[in-house]
Amino acid sequence: MPLILQLSDLHLGTSPAHEYFGDHKVPLIPEEERLGRNSLLRSSLRELGEWLRAEGLVLDAIVIAGDVTYQLNLDGYKALAPLLSELQGSIPDASKIMVVPGNHDVKRGTDPSSPERYDAFVKGIDALGYVRPYLEGVDITRQGQLTATTRAPIIEGADGDFTIVGLNSSNFSQIQLLPPEIVEVAVRKLEKSKHTKEVDLLIADWRDRGHFDMARIGGAQRRWASQALREANLTARPDDIEPIRIAVFHHQLLPVSLDEEVKPFDALVNLSEVRDWLAANQIDLLLHGHKHVPKIYEDRYLPEHEENPQERRVLVSSTATVGLGQGRNGEVGKLIKIDTTRPTLRRISIASVPARDHGVPLRELTYVTSDLGNPRVPNRPQVFEGNTTQEVHEQLLAALEGENPSGVLMCHIGEGSTAAKMPTSFPTIIKNPMTAEDFAELVEIWQAKQPLSSMRFNHGERISNFHEVDQLETAARALATNSDSSRAVMILLDPARDDLSSSDIDAPSFCLVQLVLDRGRLDVVGYFRKQEMRFWWPINVSELHHLQLEAVRKLGQMGTAASPGSITTVTAVPTAGQSVPRVAIPRIDRDSQRKPERILEMSLAVFGQPKGDNEDLIGYWRDLISDCTPPVDEAADGTPAATEGLSKLCETLDVLARVYGKSDLHRELTSTLKAIRLLNHDYLGDRRDGGGNAFAAWTKGLAPALDDLREQVDEIEERLKIAPAL
Q1: 3-state secondary structure of 384
Q2: 3-class SS at 69?
Q3: Closest CA to 303 of 312, 294, 316, 295
Q4: 390 near 402, Cβ under 8 Å?
Q5: CB-based burial of residue 704 (10 Å sphere; 0-12 exposed, 13-18 middle, 19+ buried)?
Q6: How far is CA 167 from the centre of its chain?
Q7: Is residue 251 within 8 Å of residue 279, measured between CB atoms?
Q8: Beta carbons of 59 and 90 less than 8 angstroms apart
Q9: Which residues fall within 8 angstroms of residue 234, CB to CB, at 6 or more apart?
Q10: Is residue 314 within 8 Å of residue 249, measured between CB atoms?
Q11: Hey, do 3-174+213-371 and 382-575 end up sharing a CATH topology, with the first three levels equal?
């Protein structure tokens, strides 16, 4: 695995005021005996070298992210090679050592993009054979062209596992903003004239003003660094796996500490351009220094250069130093390990290298690992997760506003027990509101052991009697026998009964359930080949919780204690409708089997023989109108349409007509209900056959029949006002 050492802000050749640790008010200890920054850096690298040798490791590259010197002290460049030599046998070849300039490595007051600005840095680094970035005014002309003899700012891993590119962020560091010429002339006249000490003080203060330390990575710098990356002689990798791309410059990308920065140009003035460059050049890891602060974080960015941007991630490593505002026991660098055994993970592990005084061995390093696998995966699953059903459902509603989902969709609820009730986020339909009672009844209907006569199947029947096998009982027994079992699976699709090649036959969209026992908590996973997410997902989740509770009860009877755990749904083809889908059984169809007394009460009211509260009776009829009125928009999988309940209502009316006598209202109402039933039956058949205009034709055909039904219900209401309740 490639190993890279990141150093920064060495500030070699620091002034005596910043060099030594300790409080030496009484100068008894000579300077050569005191602990200084340079000697602490040397001892730290010496101990790191000993540790590397003991571990059988060698460095593949060293990166120094700027500020080799302190205020361009030339002694700093002379001290650099001896400092690195403390690593002994672990140090790589000079061609594998990258050094970028920091704000202390450029000459104060010189013009940006001028040779004199980098003269000391170039002489010091080039003499050692180290790699450095292209420098404006040295390698890049004022016209933005690259000189022919320039060496590329690139380090490559021996096996093509990584590529390092250096950039210069210090071209505008230590610059002075010159005053307007007219002001400069006036100041010069003052300097030559006779004046007081106070004027001398003002002139000196004026001359010191206008110095700025601005961080910027210019366009030519970015252009040629990108070109160097493209032209790098990358070693062929199996499966065309790209190397880890590493960029290094001196200044911070984003704040790395809580310190308040009250000064101009503290951050990159063209930060967005730089982040866009990092994204466009697929940089995986950015190394910098400048702030003397240790930090590892992940920067996520949506590139501006892309038409449909995909989030790009870059791992950022800021390394610290000792002294100069930091303690003597802090970080002197970072060790970066690239995992090449699993190249698609793009795994990078970074360890802080602590300072070590003379004779204090380095015992171990602790790595922080990040996987930066390529996020640009087409049709990747969408994942929504939360502790409660409400949390996940609200995420779904927000994500589905104005669009239909695509691709696999996964939802995870940490506390499955929250699925017991309808979430308050459940949408209400203007004409057909879904009440908590309706919600609970639908869950009960779909999990009942026998389906309603209007249903070809339901989920409860498929689970409790799959070819005479009670699958829930079998699944519970599998877990009771072996708590780690993965065999607690229930199947709802039956190839023997469900012809999936024919759209004429309804087949379960809810395909499979698995129960998993994890440390006493029973988790449930449900797989759906297709699922409506706005309205029907909460009902399906509540069904899964129903199964969860039943399994917990059965496990208890078998001597295995468990409590409800999480619920996860996996949906291959999610849909998002604007109204309750077809699988929501209309109330009149439910009542025809579950509450037949309500059908009788409604029918008696037509003949002026009300039974029970008149308000309730008229409410039943008003509910029927609402139930039969289509929504404005069709549900994703078809809109519910009553059939069985309307037939039962007509039959009951005809039976009562023999007892109480026929009437115009009875005849008209029966005719209207039969017409609505026929229209509903045709719509459901056309919808199943894939008729594109089925909903529009159905809605148009229902309009006059619904007008008749409203008039007839008004007449029933008038009769109830004068008829006493039985």
Answers
A1: strand
A2: strand
A3: 312
A4: no
A5: exposed
A6: 30
A7: no
A8: yes
A9: 156, 160, 163, 243
A10: no
A11: no
Tens digits of residue pLDDT in 385-441:
999 999 999 999 888 876 677 889 999 999 999 999 999 887 665 455 678 888 999
Residue count of the chain, please give it: 726
Q: What distance in Å separates the CA atoms of residue 314 and residue 589, rounded to the nearest whole number? A: 58
Q: Which residues are 368's β-sheet partners?
A: 350
Element at 397 (helix H, strand E) = helix 389-399
Q: Which residue has the tokens 């590119």?
A: 165
pLDDT, tens digit (0-9, with 9 covering 90-100), for 291-337: 999 999 999 988 888 887 888 899 999 999 998 888 888 999 999 99
Confidence (pLDDT) at 156? 94
Q: Does domain 3-174+213-371 have CATH number 3.40.50.300?
A: no
**Chain centroid, CA 473 distance in Å:** 39
Tell me, what amino acid is at 276?
D
Q: What's residue 9's pLDDT? A: 96
Tokens representing residue 24 in the block? 């030496």
Q: How far apart are CA 639 and CA 46, in angstroms?
A: 76
Residue 388 DSSP code? S
Tokens read off for 522:
């029973």
Q: Could you say which residues of the chain have pLDDT below 50? A: 236, 430, 726
H-helix segments, 535-643? 537-557, 587-594, 596-606, 614-628
* Phi, psi torsion values for 518, nearest 5 degrees: -130, 105
Backbone angles phi, psi at 37, to 5 degrees: -60, -50
- Are residues 520 and 563 in contact, defined by beta-carbon separation less than 8 angstroms? yes
Strands 367-371 and 347-354: antiparallel
In the chain, what are the domain boundaries?
3-174+213-371, 382-575, 587-722
DSSP character at residue 160: S
Domain 382-575 classified CATH 3.40.50.300? no
In this structure, how many other beta carbons lie within 10 angstroms of the beta carbon of residue 162? 23
Q: Which two tokens stand for residue 532?
A: 């409506």
153 contacts 98 by C-beta, under 8 angstroms: yes
Q: How far apart are CA 497 and CA 447, in angstroms?
A: 19
Q: What is the DSSP letter of 244?
A: E
Q: How are beta strands 347-354 and 331-338 bridged, if at all?
A: antiparallel
H or E stretch including 204?
Answer: helix 197-208
Residues 6+ apart with CB under 8 A from 714: none
DSSP-derived 3-state class of residue 580: coil
- Indicate left, alpha or beta for 202 from its phi (over 0: left) and psi (-120 to 50: alpha): alpha
| Spatial CB neighbours of 611, under 8 Å, sequence gap ≥ 6 | 600, 601, 604, 605, 617, 725, 726
Give, rounded to a whole angstrom, the gap between the first and last alpha carbons of the chain.
89
pLDDT for residue 236? 46
pLDDT digits (tens, 9 = 90+) for 451-509: 887 788 899 999 999 999 999 999 999 999 999 999 999 999 999 889 888 777 788 99
| 3-state SS assignment for residue 345 | helix
Please provide the average confidence, as pLDDT, over all residues in the chain.
Answer: 89
pTM of the model: 0.68
Cα–Cα distance between 245 and 314 in angstroms, integer?
10
CB distance 646 to 591 below 8 Å = no
Q: In sequence order, which residues have a C-beta less than 8 Å from that of residue 723 and are 6 or more positions away?
A: 605, 608, 609, 610, 614
